[in-house]
């Protein structure tokens, strides 16, 4: 998918996941007895935070996996979603505990916002943390994944902060509005019937977290390629590993299927000493850089055109080189 679609899906899936998390949290919190006056609000906040963190983190992990693999390797996607969901649980739990405890002690809404900011921050780093662990377990360099953690933390912090503000504003305004409606019609049922409006605050929170995590990953990217011609033209992929494979094999990072002129592993983009190099995998058809066949690894520069078989890729890099 393109960078624009990635950002869009991060925001949409973040919002829907937050709504599901709110619904699950409400169901789990409903058995708490009403006579637990001193702890009911705190427990309810913890349960809602935990379910929201798990659902949003899991949804963003799936979006990231679909973007980077195109839907291949679903078993790995499931493992990634489970691990990231566990981290998301911790993120929601920590954020809810800090926010609710601070609010109950000081009655300051700002501390609730701080709690959701922490939740967004930790969710933002969750996907990159999994990639870091996966890379090191395979004894590969994890520098790209570490940058992904950094970008996710930045986006999650901003998204959690703005989402926390929207959550508080929507919760207060909608609650006041429906309380006024109930008083106007001399019935508490009107307010009770719209208790679900608190879900809008969670949706806003999820959308903001997903949106800004996606934006941060795209805006702060270091290097990328765009498929200009070939399988799924228009795809854009960030280069977050030290070696990116191009070919027809399912295991290739950039899969170009349906082109008989491309070998199973046709070429590689290798990061070495801070530079990205294009290398041919000794193929009969060869690999072309700016319409010139390469015989040995060649450095890539922003705007370079890579051609393998009938497919072409455009390399992009933030750093401009001579």
Describe it:
With 322 residues, this protein is α+β, with helices and mostly antiparallel strands. The protein contains seven helices and eleven strands. The protein has a six-stranded antiparallel sheet, with no helix packed on it. A hairpin with a 6-residue loop joins strand 1 and strand 2. Helix 1 runs antiparallel to helix 2, helix 2 packs antiparallel against helix 3 and helix 4 packs across helix 7. It is elongated and about 75 Å long.
In short:
By secondary structure, the chain is an alpha+beta fold. The protein is built from 7 helices and 11 strands. Helix 3 packs antiparallel against helix 4 (109-137).
Descriptive terms for the model:
single chain, 322 residues, five-stranded mixed β-sheet, 7 helices
List the helices and strands and how they pair.
Blueprint: H1 3-29, H2 37-69, H3 74-106, H4 109-137, H5 143-184, H6 189-193, H7 198-219, E1 223-229, E2 236-238, E3 243-247, E4 254-255, E5 267-272, E6 275-280, E7 287-289, E8 292-293, E9 298-299, E10 305-308, E11 311-317
Parallel strand pairs: 3-4
Antiparallel strand pairs: 1-2, 1-11, 3-5, 5-6, 6-9, 7-8, 7-10, 10-11
Helix pairs in contact: 1-2, 1-7, 2-3, 2-4, 3-4, 4-5, 4-7, 5-7
């Amino acid at each position: 998918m393109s960078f624009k679609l990635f950002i869009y899906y991060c925001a949409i899936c973040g919002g829907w996941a937050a709504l599901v998390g709110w619904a699950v949290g409400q169901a789990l919190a409903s058995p708490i007895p009403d006579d637990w006056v001193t702890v009911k609000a705190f427990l309810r906040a913890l349960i809602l935070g935990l379910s929201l963190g798990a659902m949003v983190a899991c949804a963003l992990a799936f979006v990231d996996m679909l973007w980077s693999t195109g839907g291949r390797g679903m078993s790995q996607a499931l493992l990634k979603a489970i691990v990231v969901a566990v981290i998301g649980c911790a993120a929601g739990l920590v954020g809810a505990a800090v926010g609710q405890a601070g609010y109950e002690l000081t009655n300051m809404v700002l501390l609730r916002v701080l709690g959701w900011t922490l939740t967004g921050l930790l969710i933002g780093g969750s996907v990159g943390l999994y990639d870091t662990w996966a890379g090191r377990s395979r004894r590969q360099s994890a520098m790209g994944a570490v940058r992904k953690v950094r970008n996710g933390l930045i986006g999650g912090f901003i998204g959690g902060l703005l989402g926390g503000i929207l959550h508080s504003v929507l919760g207060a305004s909608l609650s006041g509005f429906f309380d006024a409606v109930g008083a106007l019609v001399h019935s508490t049922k009107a307010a009770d019937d719209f208790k679900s409006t608190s879900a809008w605050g969670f949706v806003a929170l999820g959308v903001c977290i997903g949106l800004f995590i996606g934006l941060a990953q795209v805006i702060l990217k270091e290097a990328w390629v765009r498929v200009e011609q070939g399988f799924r033209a228009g795809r854009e992929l960030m280069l977050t590993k030290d070696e990116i494979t191009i070919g027809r094999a399912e295991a290739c990072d950039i899969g170009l299927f349906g082109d008989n002129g491309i070998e199973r592993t046709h070429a590689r983009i290798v990061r070495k000493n801070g530079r990205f190099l294009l290398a041919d995998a000794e193929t009969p058809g060869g690999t072309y850089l700016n319409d010139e066949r390469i015989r040995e690894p060649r450095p890539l520069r922003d705007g370079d055109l890579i051609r393998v078989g009938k497919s072409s890729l455009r390399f992009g890099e933030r750093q401009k080189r001579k």
